[in-house]
Amino acid sequence: MALDGVVIANLVKELQDTLLGGRISKIAQPEKDELLLTIKGQSREQYKLLLSAGAGLPLIYLTEQSKPSPMAAPNFCMLLRKHLNGAKILEISQPGLERIVNFKLEHLDELGDLQVKYLIVELMGKHSNIIFCDENLVILDSIKRINQFVSSVREVLPGRDYFIPATTEKYDPLTITYEVFQSTVLKKPLPIGKALYNTLTGISPLIANELCCRASLDAEEPTEALSEVAGLHLYKTLERLIEDIKDGMFYPNIVSLNGTPVEFSSVTLTCYKSHEVQTFSSISSLLEAYYAAKNSVARIRQKSADLRKVVSNAIDRAAKKYDLQRKQLKDTEKKDKYKVYGELITAYGYECEPGAKVLTALNYYDNKEINIPLDPTMSAMENAKQYFEKYNKLKRTFDALSTQIQETQDELTHLESIKNALDIATDENDLAELKRELTEFGYVKRKFVSGNRQLEKKSSTKKSNGKSKPLHYISSDGYHMYVGKNNFQNDELTFQFADGGDWWFHAKKTAGSHVIVKAGGSELPDRTFEEAARLAAYYSSARDAEKVEVDYTLKKNIKKPSGGKPGFVVYYTNYSLLSPTDITGITQVQ
User: Fold this and answer.
1) In sequence order, which ranges of 360-495 are alpha helices (DSSP H)?
2) Average pLDDT over residues 171-198
3) How confident is the model at residue 457, as a pLDDT?
């Protein structure tokens, strides 16, 4: 998901409606590649405009949030303050459908004469920049200086002329004619979607796919397969989109799947009909909400990296131990053979001659003759004793390994459940509970200071500051559904929160959340059963599958095994259903 030319056009329209005629009252540079301008509008309202040239997150939008600035302002910020404090915004424009926003600014110089300057924001991924130019578009400075060693295409340095780098064989979709469209886009030996975004400036893969969808075409179909009528229809579809852009007809929206943003755009995305659509009153509010959510997810992923590594290493160790134990168990399969050998030698040993290497006897278990190897240096009874000793040794090994394998399997299941909980963690309280669980089971070492358990003190402090809470949904029929985000929550939901008549759901033989539906003494409608099963399927480690088998039963049938790890339960009476993992349309309570 990236800012394309259509979203930039929407931004420019919004900024024109809001900021034209306003004056810049404050300039700050909170980050090395970011500016925050405070602007007083003509109606005396105050706006904050964020401009970011970050390689990973180039942005421009209106915001109400402030950011702390460094004690000493960077040189670029000082230069802007010198020239642009009090500057009036004369024009805000976008060249063609480029990912560029031009601010034409008017200010008074030291002599009191009116001067014109340009602040140009280029939102082009790793090539993003904020460039300050004079009235002749000569660069005064930029937030990122680019010399010939960094780029052979264009230097961005004080004294150089500013120009937009030529995009090879790309055409402006705002002015392209059908003849040019036909001879360029439709003649490229590429899939239709790729031909569109490779040929037209500002058209992203998303918009290219949307154009194909609106024209009832497959974006993966080659251009050579298009008939002349289909090609003309595609051009007319593009023409209608361009008319909406020129008329300022925008529809800021985010399409999501299971609550996770998939794409955002400034036009209706008919290619995502089955997805959730969240609309916004402005493109700025969309970008702020989207990137705030994205940053939150990224921050949690970053903070959970150490825990993920601990869990991953523990799973690898347990898996290797499990494989070794299974191999050792397989070696004990011959124990019963040794027992039979000992019994048969005891029964028929009197027939065995001294120094014999083999005893042929009738196996009374299957009435077949069997050849039993013997040690010729030992008597028959000594051979029998040796075989019984081998049997007993392997039997002890078998019994021990059977217990150990079950313990290792339980450990793997426990670790997989923690791994799944890390995947669905949404805040630092969730991570704190997971760290506590890992510490209790010895995967994370406790820290000691002067003999005191520092970690436990920290944990109790965090508990008082905030506690992780289960996810809360409401079914289409109005029933409350709760989803545990970790093993502690699963236990709490199932054995403390739920009543015997409530319903319990869990993905079958898969790490996942306990889902509790509060029945309130009534019989649940089928639709609520289906929605609760979808939640159990989605919040499991099998969420990427199309369908997951889900077990469900009344809570009174769920038992906690003696000594069971958090989240472990047993049940012997249950129903099952095959559920999709899509939770679109299920209402979540914040």
Assistant:
1) 380-424, 428-440, 454-465, 487-492
2) 94
3) 45
